[in-house]
Amino acid sequence: MSDKATILFVDDEERVLRSLKMLFKTKYNVLITTDGNEAVEMVKKDTVHVIVSDQRMPIMPGVEVLRLVKEASPNTMRLLLTGYSDWAAMVGSVNEGEVFRFINKPWDNDDIKNIIDQAVEIAISLLGLPQKIEEKDEGSNQPGLLVIDEDAATFDTVKEIVADKYPLKWGKTLEEAFEILSNEGIAVVISEVKIGGEDITAPLKTLKQMYPSILTLVLTSFQDTKLLIELINQGQIYRFMPKPILKKLVEMSINASMRHYRACQKTPQLLQRHAVEKPKEDTKISGKIMGYLQKIRQRL
Prior knowledge:
Low-confidence stretches: none
Structural class: alpha/beta
CATH architecture of the largest domain: 3-Layer(aba) Sandwich
CATH superfamily of the largest domain: Response regulator
Distance between the termini: 43 Å
Radius of gyration: 19 Å
Strand order of the largest sheet: 2-1-3-4-5
Largest sheet: 5 strands, parallel
CATH class of the largest domain: Alpha Beta
CATH topology of the largest domain: Rossmann fold
Number of domains: 2
Order of helices and strands: EHEHEHEHEHEHEHEEEHEHEHH
Number of strands: 12
C-alpha cells in the first residue's frame, strides 16, 4: 500500500467505478469492487480511510455494507452514493451505518472531491484512536434530554420511555426549546421538523454547526428524502425515527445517543465525525434564537 490515504468505492456498475477511480487515483490509493462482501473484507484487511458505497446493488445493499463496515472499522468514514429516493434505505444508512454524507448521482466532480477530501482529513485525524471507544454509563451523573415538539403525546411517550434515567425537558415552541438549551446541560435533542406548521430544520442545523457535541434525534411523520439529505449533510442528525412512535426504537436511539455523547466527551476528537457542510443558501434564523445560541456558547 502507498502512503496515500485509501478510498474504497463500491458500486455494481463498472463504468461508475472506472469514473470514480479516474477522478481520485492521482491523489489517493483507490480500491474498487462491485461486491459488498468483498468491500467489508477489504476494510477488515487494510486501513481504509473512506468508503463510498452505492445503495442499489444486487449482492448487498449499500446500507448493509456501511453497517458492517461500521462494525469492523468505526473510524472509517462512510458515505452513501445514491441515484434514487429509497426512503427506507436512506433512514437505515443514518440509523445503522451512521453515514457521514449522502452523495447524489449524477455527482458534481468538484462537490464530490471536496466531500471526500474532508472525509479523508477527518479519518486521518482519528487514526491514533482505538477503533472502539468504551462508552460507560456514568450512573447518577447523567446528561439532559430535550424534546422539541408541540404534541404533548410525544413528550409523554418519551417521558415514559426515559422514566428517571435521564433529566428530561420539554420545549413546546422553538423559542422555549432554545431558552432551555441556553440554560440547561442538554446532551441530546429529540425534535420534530415542524412546529406550528413551520419548518424548524434551519435552527436545528445551525445548532449542530455551532455546537457539534449536542446530538439530534429527529422524530417525525414527514418522509421527505431531500429533507433527510440536508439533515445529514448540513445537520449531522444522529438518528431518524418515524411517527407513530415505535417505543423500542426510540429507547434504543436514546440510549445509543447518550453512550455516544459520553464517548465524545471522553474523546473530543470523535466530534470531527459530526462536521457539517455549509448550507448552500443563507439560513434565516430569528434574532431571538441567535441570542439563545450565543447564551449556549457562553454556558459551554
